[in-house]
Amino acid sequence: MHAVILERNKLVGRKVARLFMSTGATALCLEDPALVAHSLEGADVLLADAFDADLVAEMLRARPKMKGVLWTAEPLRRTLKFMIEQTAIDHVLGRKDFESPPRAWETVMLARRLGGGPPAPFSAYLDWGHQSLELDVRTTADRDTAVARIQELIGSLGVPKRVSEMFAELGHELIMNAMYDAPADANGRPKYAADRKADVVLEPAERPHVRIGTDGSRLVLQVRDPFGRLERKHVVDGLARGLAGGEMDQSHGGAGLGMMVCHNASSAMVFDVARGRHTEVTAMFELDMNLREFRTQAKSLHYWSQ
Amino acid sequence: MEAVPHGQASASSPPPGAEQKLTIEKFADGAIACLRFAGTIDESFEGKKLGGTAAGDTLVLDLGGVKKISSFGIREWVDFVTTANKQVRSMVLIECSPKVVDQLNMVANFNGGGRVFSFYAPFRCDYCDSEHRVLLQLDKDHEIIKSMKLAERPCPSCKEGMYFDEDGATFFSYIIGQEKFELEPEVAAFLASKLNYAVSDLNRKLRIDKIIEGRTTYLRLAGDLDRTFPREKLAEGLEGTVIIDLQSIGRIEPAGAAEWRGFVKMVSPLVDQLYLASAPTSFLEKLASVEDLGTKAQIVTLTLPYSCGSCGTNSGQTIEVAQHHDTLKFATAPELKCPTCKHALQCIAGESQMTALTTLPRSTATSDLVKTIGILRERALATQRTAKPTVNKDGSTTAAAPPRSSLLVPFLASLLAVVVAAGGYLAYQRMNKEPDGPKTKLGVITSKSAETRPAWISSDTQGTASCTDTKDKGMSCVGVSSISARQDDAEDEAADAALDAIANALAVRIANPAWKLSVIPVYKSARDAKLAAFDRDPSNTSSRRDVREARNAVGRMLRATSGGAVPAAPNARYWEEYTGSDGKRFLAFAQVTIGATELAKLVEQYTAPQTALGATAVSMFPLVGWRYPKLDHGAIITKLGTGPLQDLGLAEQYVVVSVAGRDVVDAASFAKLATDEHTALVGKGGTLRLKVQAADGAPREFATAIKPPEVDTPNTGRGSGGRNTGGGNTGGINVWDKFGGGKGPGRDDPTQ
User: How far is CA A205 from each of CA A116, A225, A278, B173, B690, rounded to the nearest angstrom?
Assistant: First the structure.
């Protein structure tokens, strides 16, 4: 895989290039946008700050096979419009400020997978030695138990109660999606989405897989359903609508604000969809910052589809 | 889909409906209603249905207890507020939790057209790792809100600086767009007087509306009855039939009561009849004796507090004295139906309030007069609304046109109201010299329960308690109230503080290391944090309420579990009345003494361990009330070894509240109930159910199926192995890392 990196801060550019090259990719670092068009020969991916997103979008339009990756130190809302316009941009890397590169582990994970590697396992999001829980969700009552267990686990870390409540809220949201929105019958018709108030008992083949883990620095929550029905537009449009002013979309039974709830409770969201096989949503929260810092933190978003 | 396998309950899974995610308390008083929300708003919240039941003039939504809101909960919520707002004239959101503020910032129409009056800003202290909330009000904190910055302030727990734990630009983004406004006096009086909310003192000042119709004068009083009551001004020119509507009277201070008595005496020779309408229980207790009413005054209607066991609404119901006198004179409340759900209401008035009913003279007022009072009240309220700009549903303000009288009889709708109240207040202040008495920082002492302060009082620091050893090696604890508007309130608070000190002194005397290790952590941080918050600002409603609630719980629990070792009432009491710029206020003291024998008995009683099913437990200790104020019985797990209770998911410091639906009153009953139930289930099979207080929130049920011995039990779990023994299972929950279980499929081994 060959990556072309446009970054005005050469230290940041070099770091990103190094991270890409560590996965076996080749990388070219550019500081001048004018040089980009002439440097894309053989490039598989073009990476840049969201400041240069217009240029990235333009380059991608001319090269349909190339992928785009943006990084940003600003709210995700500003970058989402490029994801809506240009479907070849599936990844936004949040970074602390304009002087900082995106998170190293996240960049490496991205580079590895863009280069054809497998999806990262759950443990890749956490340091070795972490603890995790797997929660079996079969019924509506199990959902509530799972949410309580998530909150309990986070509470046991001694973090602010608001954090444990926020992540429990996120867990509820993701499990609700996996239990009520994801299951479909043989004809692809949603089975339980029409009535979210109803108690359901899922068949073994319908049950979502819920994992919560922490290494003390990060919290990771992963919910995987065996249907793979989540589409890119659900993610991107849902986020765009929610972050633009919270207008509800009630056309699918919910409020259409679930994506916004997820965004507001996490530092990074990874959506991994294998059409008809699974949808896996992984949310990550960094525990080393207070909520004030968290609110202003640039968030990451990844959408993978197979 | 499949059927749920019988008896395969997940560990720690709450049974359906056992744990209420959202509680909604309803309070109603005439045209004002308040709904207090606490917990999680999710898909189970029936927004539209609840919104449809909203009625009246003003709906107040107290959102201070809302902790989580799911996306579908948002939808239900918006349905609720939108529906409710259509049914009431105005809707006000108060004490919004940070979670609610988040939603207001993000979701269009989350307020449903209502206005936010107050909200909590989250603060965090990194020094002591604690979280706090600071209440901000749109009327008095508008400038601070506009700045979008909240300065650091001392942490209530450790006094170091705590900081505003949000991004100001984000957190205030919705609130900043809202105009500054003040609560309507009616609403403020309702919240302050009836529900003890913190609202501006200005809003509690007495407001008087007057309507004259022929020889009938209708006066409507709203606010606190204190020494500022303008009796001369109000009595001026009264004649004929006078109706005084007391529906919105708030607190009645002793000086206010004296002024009222003077007023009644003054007008009695001038008027034909003085009818008192909608007298609240506080008025009945203090101002409804035969002497107080004199020859001309009579109570036409009174308001008694009722609660509906079906829909949960607490409301004041108007009772016609003439119609129900035969019932009332036996201190019995009339049987009424809930106006909302039509179920039977339960009167919740206190014993002293009911006793006041027995001396009420029979009213001569007719039902027509009662109806007339209702009409006049409506007119007074309508006039009041036209006197100030109204905020429309869209948030704009317009001055409403005065309503046209539907009757031909001319009436004067005098806006004596604020003008008279304020004028009267000023005149009263000028005419009356300062009361005599020693001046203190709380004001001048104008009355006290004894000539001199008793020797057993060594400190008058508000909200504190101290203990000393007695000569017979017993203990004497003295509690001091915070400054309070009511004498009885202050006395109760002092007694609770003394009992809390007794319990704390007991904890200090307990030397058992296992007890200390397991029981003290259950309540210590909650107690420390609440006391520190109160210490920092004793006038703060929220912190005072927390401490009062906790101390009351401790006192209740101590009395209930001490087996008579603790006296039912304090051994000695004393109070002082202070008069200052805020009117009359009270400081009370209470002394509770227990002997050496009782002390030893209590120490033994609270520390004696009992063992069952691998768990060791001690009896519930009263100080646990600081953390779980709603608990009043149970057994605290102090040690947990291998056994069914460990398999069930119990942990040390959990409080077992019941076994198989039977209350655990102490450690011994825990041991007996648990052993008996388990033995029975092993023989016949079934589900072992324990209700346990495991963490903050409501107690939840821990349950596991126990198969009968003759049945072959295949392992239906996911093979997590290790810990699962017997019939217990973890419901497929892999707890390998947290609890040290063995490896199993699905383990996410980082070395792979």
Answer: 29, 9, 11, 45, 32
- Check whether residue B32 and residue B173 sit in a common domain: yes
pLDDT band of B631, cuts 50, 70, 90: confident
Asked whether residue B727 is assigned to any structural domain, the reply reads no
Q: Give pLDDT tens digits for B272-317.
A: 899 999 898 888 888 988 888 988 899 999 988 887 777 767 777 8
**CATH number of the domain that residue B242 is part of:** 3.30.750.24
Residues B340 and B386 in one domain: yes
Burial class of residue B710, CB neighbours in 10 A (0-12, 13-18, 19+)? exposed
For chain A, domains (ranges, CATH) are 2-114 (3.40.50.2300), 122-305 (3.30.565.10)
Kindly state the greatest CA–CA separation across chain B: 97
In a domain, B550, yes or no: yes
| Residues of the domain holding B169 | 22-177
pLDDT surpasses 90 at A273: yes
Partner B contacted by A249 (CB < 8 A): no
- Which CATH number do you get for residue B650? 2.30.42.10
DSSP secondary structure string for all residues of A78-121: HHHHHHHH-TTEEEEEE-SSTTSPPPHHHHHHHHHHHTTPPPPP
In order, the DSSP letters of B230-257 are: -HHHHHTT--EEEEEEEEEEEEE-HHHH
Let me know whether B82 and B105 are in one domain: yes
Say whether both B555 and B621 belong to one domain. no
3-state secondary structure of B273: strand
Q: Do B71 and A256 touch (CB under 8 A)?
A: yes
Nearest-CB residue to A136 (from B695, B733, B749): B733
Query: Which tens digit of pLDDT belongs to each residue from A104-116?
Result: 999 999 999 999 9
The Cα–Cα gap between A177 and A256 comes to 11
Q: Does B17 touch chain A (CB under 8 A)?
A: no
Q: What is the pLDDT of residue B438?
A: 53
| Phi/psi of residue B655, nearest 5 degrees | -110, 120
Are B225 and B307 in a shared domain? yes
Give the gap in angstroms from C-alpha A143 to the nearest C-alpha of chain B.
10
Which chain A positions have a beta carbon within 8 Å of B732's beta carbon? 134-136, 138
Nearest-CA distance A69 → chain B (Å): 27
- What are the tens digits of pLDDT across the range B136-182? 988 888 888 888 888 888 888 888 889 999 988 889 988 988 888 88
Distance CA B307, CA A178 (A): 41
**Residues A152-157: contacts with CB under 8 Å, at least 24 apart:** A152/B695, A153/A212, A153/A214, A153/B738, A154/A212, A154/A214, A154/A219, A155/B695, A156/B738, A157/A214, A157/A216, A157/A287
Same domain (yes/no): B660, B683: yes
Q: What is the dihedral of CA B337, B340, B341, B343, to 10 degrees?
A: -20
In a domain, B491, yes or no: yes
Q: Please give the tally of structural domains in chain B.
A: 4
CB-nearest to A246 from B106, B735, B752 is B106
Q: Number of C-alpha atoms within 13 angstroms, CB side, residue A214?
A: 21
Residues B65 and B139 grouped into a single domain: yes
Identify whether B255 is part of a domain: yes
> Which pair of structure tokens corresponds to residue A124?
């890749």
ipTM of the complex as predicted: 0.85
- Same domain for B627 and B561: no
Q: Which residues contact B66 (CB under 8 A, 6 or more apart)?
A: B37, B38, B39, B40, B41, B96, B97, B99, B100
Task: Provide the whole-model pTM.
Answer: 0.56
How many residues does the structure list for chain A? 306
Q: Which residues of A touch B22 (CB under 8 A)?
A: none
Neighbours of A22 (CB within 10 A): 14
Calculate how close chain B gets to A31, using CA atoms only, in Å.
33
